[in-house]
Design goal:
Elements: H1 2-12, H2 28-42, E1 47-49, H3 55-64, E2 72-76, H4 80-87, E3 93-96, H5 99-116, E4 131-133
Parallel strand pairs: 1-2, 2-3
Antiparallel strand pairs: 3-4
Amino acid sequence: MHLLSEFALQQRFPHIQLREVLAGQEERDTISKLLEKQLSQAGQVSGIYNTGLGNREISEALARHRLLDKCVFMTHELYGSTRDLLAKQVLSLTIDQNSRQHAQLATSLMLKHLENGVVPETYADGKVEFMLFTDENYA
């Protein structure tokens, strides 16, 4: 999936140079160190996409490098911390995949399988809509 999305970005936005993927291993200190090193060397940064832990650390690094109003910052899930970052206009976009609905759907599919032997249709039976939140619609 990563290569496909990288290819799509290069095709649609050839003027944007993608940098290396930073793997923080869900450890805040590692995330901070990797991002600090990258931002120190980077020059111009147009955007950061975070798929996991560390939104606060990323926002703090962007602030230290005076990139808050110059860099698009996107992440996942609408938590208290992401709501706060959206309200402060630090975070540009949150992709919320409705974890409660995922859990309810998984339980329902599992029970149907255990009770009736129903095998869920890949993608069709497990579809959960996602929402995009910005500072204008997060409340």
